[in-house]
UniProtKB/TrEMBL annotation:
This is DUF7964 domain-containing protein. InterPro entries: DUF7964. It comes from Halarchaeum rubridurum. Residues 3-87 form the DUF7964 domain. It comes from the Archaea.
Amino acid sequence: MAFESLPARPLSHDEVMALSASGRFADVRPVNAFHYPERETQLITAIVFVTESGLRAVDYDPAAREWRVVREEPLDGPEDITDVPDALLGDVQAEIEQRVSELEDAGVVGATAARDDTTEVRDATSLGSVLYDQYTDDDA
């Protein structure tokens, strides 16, 4: 299922942090990112949104140029991500990482280069170039 509230491109780390600071969500956490050392940029391709009513995990599909809902779960008034059951967060992370593992096996993305709290950071590869081109595309 498409998640049309986001632009048809990956988001920068700063954009995700702005969503987090907006007050519209109980919490916003990037889950997967591609790092571009030469551009000092991280593009986020998976995000967990926590609202007063539940959790919604989304990931970016560069082939379709859209964000997809990976998982939705109702929750009873969470204040932040610490109110989300660890088992649920683990399941969501596993679902997102399964897709990334398939891309790794195909040689499209590199292995995890670093971990920043809850975010898996990977060096940009051929997919990274596509993501960056889509991020900078003014038509998106």
